[in-house]
């Protein structure tokens, strides 16, 4: 799929999973450490690629929810999106990730909330990029904030 780029994010990694990442504007300036569960040192104060992906996916998905809500002519308040990115060995012997998105839309009926989440899943660039490539599960709740 070809896109008409309006923005390009840039980040540089040095040292792999136990290295360092920076963004071109230096706002991101983070140490990386492989989690202990993956055989790494799990250094305190460091992040990992899966946490960074989870943060990006959650934020992007919430933005897509805003688009879906505008299209449905409804207002969102106190929405939250929590992304859980799993890492493990794939059936083919390589490694893979999975994504579980927990979306809370307080004040909505369950069916309407699920409809908005499905619409957002079709809009979100992260969801579109991962479609058919990784397992993505969506959980929708309507709990008061």
From TrEMBL:
GO biological process, one term: response to oxidative stress
Pfam families assigned: OsmC (PF02566)
Family per similarity comment: Belongs to the OsmC/Ohr family.
Name of the protein described by the UniProt record: Organic hydroperoxide resistance protein
Species of the source: Hymenobacter setariae
């Amino acid at each position: 799929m070809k896109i008409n780029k309006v923005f390009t994010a840039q980040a540089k990694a040095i040292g792999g999973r136990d290295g360092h990442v920076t963004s071109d504007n230096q706002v991101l300036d983070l140490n990386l450490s492989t989690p202990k569960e993956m055989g790494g040192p799990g250094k305190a104060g460091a992040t990992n690629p899966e946490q960074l992906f989870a943060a990006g996916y959650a934020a992007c998905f919430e933005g897509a929810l805003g688009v879906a809500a505008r299209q449905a002519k409804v207002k969102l308040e106190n929405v939250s999106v929590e992304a859980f990115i799993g890492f493990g060995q794939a059936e083919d012997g390589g490694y893979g990730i999975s994504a579980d998105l927990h979306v809370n839309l307080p004040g909505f009926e369950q069916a309407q909330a699920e409809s908005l989440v499905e619409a957002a899943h079709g809009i979100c660039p992260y969801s579109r990029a991962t479609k058919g490539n990784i397992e993505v599960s969506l959980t929708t709740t309507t709990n008061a904030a």
